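hey can u check if this looks right to u? its 175 residues, i copy pasted from the old doc so theres a chance i mangled smth
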Amino acid sequence: MANRERYHLLLRLVDTRDAGTGFPDMLGPKPQLDRLAEFGLRDVQPSELRRLRELRDALLPVVLGPDDAAARTSRLNTLLRDYALAPQLDNHGTLSFVSGRSGRIAGLAAQVLPQAIDLLRTGDVSLVNTCQATDCAAPFIAAGRGRQYCSPRCSSRVRVRRFRSTTERAGGEQK
């Protein structure tokens, strides 16, 4: 079973895209500052925002692309080369990755690319779904069979809308 927290930062970065739900690209001309803060980025320069969008857009086909393992792997390997990611082992045996590039976006890449590696290596990529709520398209790890919503909040909103719709129709028929 996949640990949802293991891929949290990766999925949150991918979730900044314009998914056609009426919400704009969170990294667009007017970026959502709270989302940037979540990535440890404050006072972002336009060039950093552009690089962050490029990283996100390059990760999209890895995380949400068609079910083509070779294409996903190739894309991820290209990103690993582009960011010159190298493994580092500390004295306690903890593995981390560092980027051969400088800057805050390279530092973020050193955090999310290992999550993408694990996503593909473990096969958990097959568990990535997008929320089926009409006003959401957040990617999430579907730990249970048939899970359609990214959170209890989205699931509840859909159930409430469905209930209200049914109640309104039934009320209209009784008049």
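The first strand starts at residue 85 and ends at 89.
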